[in-house]
Design a protein that fits this description.
By secondary structure, this protein is an all-beta fold. The longest helix is centred in the first third of the chain and has 5 residues. The protein starts with 42 loop residues before the first helix and ends in a 6-residue tail after the last strand.
């Protein structure tokens, strides 16, 4: 604002920055390392929530958990990649891998996210690819995503995401795509967990190029 009445105000290169430095870890007396601090989300972190979705880091500790399954790596991965995630010893269709999202401030109310990954289903005994039919509206025998989230106010949501448009190739990699919009009444999340599940019990689920990225709209056909 400001300026003589009736005049035009022109503005450019507007920025808004904090002059208060983000706190750094201070070593505890007698030690050489300080307490662990949760990183402040950056713009890039809020564009892509999964930083190791290609499995190339070769690390699982602290990043992943499982539900009635075993999670490890397999080679090769999709395309020319060296690794993919291997979810095996699954005892039911809801068995799978769990990724807990820690950058919760990125997941604001009404934000929309594109969830995608490459997937295969494998017979653990023979190594052959398994068939599934994603055309069924509520399928369970194909790869899918299960979201569990809760807000500080006590609101909780469970959501299954399926991709019914996949033309499944049992001997190759298939692309899963889905979209999720955080409910408008969940403005402060307490937890957000992503389960990679689906496929007949006992089958092995392979996942590569797992991504959850911010988007502005859900594509329409």
């Amino acid at each position: 604002t400001g300026g003589p009445l009736g005049s035009t105000l022109l503005l450019d290169d507007i920025t808004w920055t904090s002059t208060t430095p983000y706190p750094t870890a201070v070593p505890t007396p007698g030690t050489t390392t300080g307490p662990t601090l949760t990183p402040r989300p950056t713009i890039d972190m809020c564009r892509e929530l999964i930083d190791d979705g290609d499995a190339e880091s070769g690390e699982l500790s602290g990043r992943w958990n499982t539900l009635d399954a075993t999670l490890e790596f397999v080679s090769p991965g999709y395309g020319d990649s060296d690794k993919a995630f291997k979810i095996t010893d699954r005892i039911r269709w809801k068995s799978g891998a769990i990724r807990t999202i820690t950058t919760l401030t990125c997941l604001g109310a009404s934000t929309t996210w594109h969830i995608t990954f490459k997937a295969r289903l494998i017979d653990p005994q023979t190594g052959d690819g398994l068939h599934c039919d994603p055309s069924y509206l509520d399928y369970t025998n194909c790869p899918m995503v299960w979201l569990k989230l809760g807000s500080d106010s006590g609101i909780k949501r469970d959501q299954y995401l399926r991709d019914n448009s996949v033309e499944w190739e049992k001997d190759g990699w298939n692309t899963f795509n889905s979209y999720y919009t955080v409910p408008s009444n969940m403005d402060s999340l307490k937890f957000f967990r992503v389960f990679l599940i689906g496929g007949q019990p006992g089958g092995t689920l392979l996942v590569d190029n797992f991504s959850i990225s911010r988007t502005t709209a859900i594509p329409t056909e």
